[in-house]
Design goal:
The protein is mostly helical and 178 residues long. It contains 5 helices and no strands.
Length: 178
């Protein structure tokens, strides 16, 4: 099946595919589709590895959000336990210590999951280098630098959430014990 290059967006007005009415750069006008040099078996193997890396990336992202949800539920449970035992100061202090430990574990887990995502992104980037120029072109539409910035902003926001939730819980526990 012959490959067709991506539309250039310079056809007659109204005949361009949706979203292709913009003028492309000179480099994009000279785009040439070159198929992968991999044999069929290697190509299939690379696509399988690519899919696995993508699945692992999504799994790690899901685990990041799940860990935030579980931490929030744990903090609610700690607060409710403290509220039910407000007169036992030793128990409330124990719950406070547990909340600090949970926060530390959550921060470490977020960092581990972030590095896992970075490794999976590296795999995807390395595999994509062996695919066709069309696949490489599509992957290049979002720069890796932009992705890195987004990833670290999200990591910062998750860590800020953990710290703010920890502070809110400790303040609530202190208010309970008066």
């Amino acid at each position: 099946m012959p490959a067709t290059p991506p539309p250039t967006g310079k056809g007659p007005p109204g005949k361009n595919p949706p979203g292709r009415d913009r003028v492309r750069d000179e480099d994009e006008d000279e785009f040439e589709h070159i198929e992968s040099e991999l044999d069929d078996l290697s190509h299939a193997e690379f696509l399988t590895l690519y899919k696995e890396a993508g699945d692992n990336l999504l799994f790690a992202k899901q685990k990041q959000w799940h860990s935030m949800a579980y931490l929030t539920l744990a903090f609610v449970a700690i607060y409710l336990l403290a509220r039910g035992n407000v007169h036992d100061l030793k128990f409330v202090n124990y719950l406070s210590a547990c909340s600090f430990i949970l926060s530390l574990f959550a921060i470490v887990a977020e960092i581990f999951l972030q590095f896992w995502q970075i490794n999976e992104q590296r795999k995807i980037r390395d595999i994509a280098e062996h695919l066709s120029t069309s696949a490489q072109h599509v992957r290049s539409l979002k720069s890796s630098g932009e992705s890195d910035v987004h990833r670290y902003i999200m990591l910062f926001m998750l860590m800020a959430y953990i710290i703010m939730a920890q502070i809110a819980l400790i303040r609530a526990l202190w208010n309970l014990t008066g």
